[in-house]
Amino acid sequence: MFSFIIAVGENNEMGLNNHLPWHLPSEIGYFRKVTEYHTIIMGRKTFESLPKVLPNRRHIVLTKDKNYSYDHRDVIIANSLEEVFNIVNKDEENIIIGGAEIFRLFLPHTSRIYLTIVHRSFKADVYFFELDKNEWIETKKWEAILDKKTIIPHTYYVLDRREK
Ligand SMILES: NC(=O)c1ccc[n+]([C@@H]2O[C@H](COP(=O)([O-])OP(=O)(O)OC[C@H]3O[C@@H](n4cnc5c(N)ncnc54)[C@H](OP(=O)(O)O)[C@@H]3O)[C@@H](O)[C@H]2O)c1
């Protein structure tokens, strides 16, 4: 199966200058907890925005550039959606981590969304799209616990695709 993990601002803001628009250490911890020991799938721009290859995760990086390469045992380069389908084990949870282009590509194939809404407006140059509310059921929701390092209120949701 495929899942998304995504954080957005109040206006679906996702990114600015190839970075996240906010600094939320507790959300980074949540991201690690959800994605660790899974295959994570991302666009080339999101991959290049990571500070490093993330430990304990197999990375699949999508690019149309057939010459793109990255020498690391946990990084696989793929040139199409079909190629990703051939690499992953569909019985496991494979997690799409963005960005917007790759979320669009995988939306029809995705059955769960780990969504964080950050309760503030941000300057952004990449936005998430509106989800069709009829297609998703909210199965979990909880508020973030704030502390000295994490001061912006945010809410965590788990959405599951409604059975047809
Ligand atoms: N808030 C969040 O949860 C979150 C999560 C992830 C990222 N972000 C932010 O989002 C921004 C990046 O998102 P983005 O939408 O600009 O870029 P992206 O989705 O990360 O990457 C786009 C790239 O993916 C490749 N690609 C797209 N469609 C493809 C296809 N059909 N087949 C093969 N490769 C394909 C292309 O790479 P080539 O150009 O190499 O061909 C394209 O330029 C950054 O600001 C990042 O910080 C936010």
**What's the multimeric state?**
single chain
Spans with pLDDT under 50 lasting ≥5 residues?
none
Percent range for β-strand residues: 25-35%
Number of domains: 1
Radius of gyration: 16 Å
Number of strands: 10
Shape: globular
Mean pLDDT: 96
Strand order within the widest beta sheet: 5-4-3-6-1-7-10-9
Q: How do the SSEs run, as a string of H and E?
A: EEHEHEEHEHEEEE
Q: Could you say what the CATH architecture is?
A: 3-Layer(aba) Sandwich
CATH top level? Alpha Beta
CATH topology: Dihydrofolate Reductase, subunit A
Enumerate how many helices there are, as a single number.
4
Structural class: alpha/beta
The biggest beta sheet, please? 8 strands, mixed
How far do the termini sit from each other?
16 Å
Instruction: Enumerate the distinct ligands.
Output: NADP nicotinamide-adenine-dinucleotide phosphate
Structural commentary:
The radius of gyration is 16 Å and the shape is globular. Helix content is 19%, strand content 34%. The strands form two sheets. Strands 5-4-3-6-1-7-10-9 form an eight-stranded mixed β-sheet, with helices on both faces. Strands 2-8 form a two-stranded antiparallel ribbon. The model has no long low-confidence stretch (mean pLDDT 96). It is of the alpha/beta class and 164 residues long. It has a single domain (2-161), classed as Dihydrofolate Reductase, subunit A (3-Layer(aba) Sandwich). Bound molecules: NADP nicotinamide-adenine-dinucleotide phosphate (NAP). NADP nicotinamide-adenine-dinucleotide phosphate binds next to strand 1, strand 2, strand 3, helix 2 and strand 6.
